[in-house]
Amino acid sequence: MSKVKYYYDSETLSYKKIEQKKGRRLGIALLSITGSFLAGFILLIIYLNIPQIETPKEKALKRELQNMKLQYGLLNKKMDQIQDVMANIEDRDNNIYRLYFEANPIPEEQRKAGFGGINRYKDLEGFDNSKLITETTKRLDILTKRLVVQSKSLDEIAELAREKGELLSAIPAIQPVNNEDLSRIASGYGVRTDPFTKARKFHYGMDFTAPRGTPVYATGDGRVARADSRSTGYGNHIRIDHGYGYTSLYAHLYKYNVRRGRRVKRGDVIGFVGNTGRSEAPHLHYEIFKDGKRINPINFYYGNLSPEEFGEVLDKAQRENQSLD
Ligand SMILES: [Zn+2]
Q1: Residue 94: which pLDDT band, with cuts at 50, 70 and 90?
Q2: Which residues surround ligand 1, an ion (CB under 5 A)?
Q3: Predicted model pTM
Q4: C or N terminus of the chain, fewer CB within 10 Å?
């Protein structure tokens, strides 16, 4: 509170108040405000120019942050390596495995697709190192997705390989009797002379001459569909259902080694050569059906013949002669 000051007026012989001028008071106020600002500004300049004195905690945090950045850098380098390995596997998957099993290659966009829609990285935003962390996380997410796609593809390949393996072991692919010197092929598929009527007739199978009791082999994996003599002409015969539309038939048997319903593997002895049914001499009459139609068995001996041997078999089977039926 400012003191009230007086002066003595000699004319009126009394004390009077000294009135301070308003303008001067304002000037003083302005001067003090400017002064304060100036002082503050100078202090700020000094503060900014003096090297910061860090507390031990700040120092530790700073070191930790630097280490974290270093570690993120190393992580990214490791991810580079993993990405290279991954790209190599994907390439082999598309161009070898999937190609081999006739599956469509998986397009690049599908393999490397990120995650669309909502921002999955919102929680990582708003920090000094947000970009580094977000980018690293994104890379890891994409890599994870590529792994999932690849893993599914391999499952598919494994399934296709299993099916292909099953198909290959099911299809009739060997000769039904031991025929090392290829001397047992007596008659092939095509028009032949009937041994009984001597008429020209279509012979729907292949005849293998062999002594009675010679083992007869299943020519592919399958299930015995029939083992009986209730079909005219065939005598004791066996039919094996191989699946995939294939059936093989073995006729004029002397004896059976299997019963209906038995599962057999390629090469299993299923019966023995005989002379039952409409047969002129002991031999095996062999037929292959595809989707119920009889087809030429000659195309199914690739399992255990060299190209030269196959040529010889073809030659013998095509010879126009009399079948043994
Ligand atoms: Zn025949």
Answers
A1: very high
A2: 205, 207, 285, 323, 325
A3: 0.68
A4: N
Ligand 1 midpoint to CA 325 (Å):
3
The pLDDT of residue 278 is 96
Residues sharing a CB contact under 8 Å with residue 69, sequence separation 6 or more, in sequence order: 129, 132
pLDDT tens-digit series, residues 52-86: 778 899 999 999 999 999 999 999 999 999 999 99
Backbone φ and ψ for 284, nearest 5 degrees, come out as -110, 125
Q: Which of helix, strand or coil describes residue 34? A: helix
Whole-number Å distance, alpha carbon 307 to ligand 1 midpoint, is 25
**SS3 (DSSP) at 133:** helix
Closest Cα to residue 238, out of 220, 255, 226?
226
pLDDT single digits (tens) 128-158: 888 999 999 999 999 999 999 999 999 999 9
Q: Does 165 have pLDDT greater than 90? A: yes
Nearest to 149 by CA among 95, 99, 100, 89: 89
> What is the total residue count of the chain?
325
State pLDDT tens for residues 270-319. Answer: 999 999 999 999 999 999 999 999 999 998 887 778 888 888 888 999 98
* Cα(120) to centroid(ligand 1), Å: 73
CA of 172 to the centre of ligand 1 (A): 18
What is the three-class DSSP state of 22? helix
Q: How far is the CA of 248 from the centre of ligand 1 (A)?
A: 13
Q: Quick one: residue 130, left, alpha or beta (phi over 0 = left, psi -120 to 50 = alpha)?
A: alpha
DSSP assignment letter at 87: H
CA distance 225 to 249: 10
State which H helix or E strand residue 223 sits in.
strand 222-228
